[in-house]
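job 3f2a | input accepted
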Amino acid sequence: MFTLMVDRLEDINDLLLRDISPREVWAGISDEKVMRREIARELINHANGLFTQIPSGRKQQVRMPPVDLG
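job 3f2a | predicted structure (70 res):
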């Protein structure tokens, strides 16, 4: 799981280096809740259904649901 998360962080890093980078928009975000939502959106958009966004109290969490390997 750790390797998968490192790969996703590398994907976000690659996104920030592209011409279509949301870097300027993200730099203007001062609210942690909004930033978490934007990062979650990117993870979900690039995960091919592997991640889901789950409300957990006041914060949104990105989780990887169990996968049936059988």
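job 3f2a | Helices lie at 2-17, 23-27, 32-45.
job 3f2a | closed
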